[in-house]
Amino acid sequence: MSHSVSSSDLANDASSAAPSPRVVIHTDGACRGNPGPGGWGAILVSGKHRKELKGSEQDTTNNRMELMAAIEALKALTRRCDVVLWTDSEYVKNGITKWVHGWVKRGWKTAAKQPVKNEALWKALLEQSQRHDIEWRWVKGHSGDEGNERADSLANEAIDEMQSRR
Question: Which residues cross the membrane (predicted)?
Answer without folding.
Answer: none
